[in-house]
Design a protein that fits this description.
Layout lengths: L4 H5 L36 H15 L8 H6 L12 H12 L2 E5 L5 H9 L2 E5 L16 H8 L6 H19 L3 H13 L2 E2 L6 E2 L2 H4 L4 H7 L4 E4 L2 H5 L11 E5 L2 H7 L5 H8 L21
Parallel strand pairs: 1-2, 3-6, 5-6
Antiparallel strand pairs: 3-4
Helix pairs in contact: 5-7, 7-8, 7-12
Bound molecules: phenylalanine and cobalt (II) ion.
Cobalt (II) ion (CO) binds next to helix 6 and helix 9.
């Protein structure tokens, strides 16, 4: 054994969700310095492929009327639902469309590593799949959330560019100590965004699209607040991590999202820091509520 072999193979420090003391679920010892690792596709069991298929089919069955057209058109790129996709094959197709790739990671990764990968048009996808008892609900992102929720829209050229810009913006936000404000933008767009269409609001956020119950709730329920996309408003708004969202922000188009987030955020972060936070669910007096789809 070489003297420095241990140092080389040490991997990276694990990352866990929230303040909890649960052990990390992925194998961080096998990750490279940029937190990427091998997918190790042949290690998935038949039971895991079958669980993936059941998750996929449950979501696919409710996309019509709830998911945006861009997502519905692109979901076929994930291939047959019978098997967890091979990231290398998926990357090849994705690269041909938008020059993005997917890379395997052991699970949650630090902000800077995450931003760095997005800025290079590499989307980190968790290797492991949830347990059967987590069929209806999982706190941390797993391979199903990351693939089914996030990857289809990376085939859309405008959304793909937005994700890269977000990564570059994240590296900048780290330097400006503004990651918390920028995280709210990710949360209310990439994870829980709605988009207006001639047939009513539809979902484009990955957290919604990979959720058994929130997909219908976010689009059809009269309960949550829905307001138009507004960058500063989003940066001021707190969010829920353990229940359906109380507020959803509705974009008009991916082009609107891209353009509204293109300006330098430095003065925007400064302005937002001086304004009070807004609780999830609150609709301000001057705001128009956007109706649920029927
Ligand atoms: N325009 C942002 C900035 O200057 C970067 C960014 C783009 C952030 C898109 C998020 C999404 O910080
Ligand atoms: Co996600």
């Amino acid at each position: 054994m070489l003297a420095n072999e241990k140092a080389v193979n040490q991997g990276v420090a694990p990352v866990t969700y929230g303040q909890g003391d649960r052990p990390p679920r992925g194998d961080y010892s096998a990750a490279r310095a940029d937190y990427t690792c091998e997918q190790n596709w042949s290690a998935y069991t038949a039971a895991e492929h079958d669980l993936y298929r059941r998750l996929y089919e449950r979501q696919a069955a409710q996309l019509n009327g709830l998911a945006c057209d861009e997502f519905i058109e692109a979901v076929q790129h994930l291939g047959k639902p019978e098997r967890i996709p091979r990231f290398d094959e998926l990357s090849e197709a994705l690269y041909r469309h938008t020059r993005w790739e997917v890379v395997a990671v052991p699970g949650l990764i630090p902000e800077e590593a995450f931003f760095g990968l997005l800025a290079q048009r590499r989307f980190p996808v968790t290797g492991w799949l949830r347990k059967p008892e987590e069929f209806d609900y999982i706190v941390e992102p797993d391979v199903f959330h990351d693939l089914f929720g996030h990857v289809p829209l990376l085939f859309n050229p405008v959304f793909a560019d937005y994700m890269q810009a977000y990564g570059a913006g994240g590296l900048k936000a780290s330097r400006l100590d503004a990651c918390e404000l920028l995280a709210r933008l990710y949360w209310y767009t990439v994870e829980f965004g709605l988009i207006q269409t001639p047939r009513g609001v539809r979902a484009y956020g990955a957290g919604i699209l990979s959720s058994a119950g929130e997909l219908r709730h976010s689009v059809r329920s009269a309960e949550p607040s829905r307001v138009g996309f507004d960058l500063q408003r989003i940066m001021r708004t707190r969010y829920k991590i353990d229940s359906y969202q109380a507020t959803y922000f509705v974009i008009e188009s991916f082009q609107q999202l891209f353009e509204a987030t293109a300006p330098d955020f430095t003065p925007i972060y400064r302005a937002v820091r001086d304004l009070p936070e807004i609780e999830a669910g609150v609709v301000l007096p001057d705001e128009r509520r956007i109706a649920a789809a029927d």
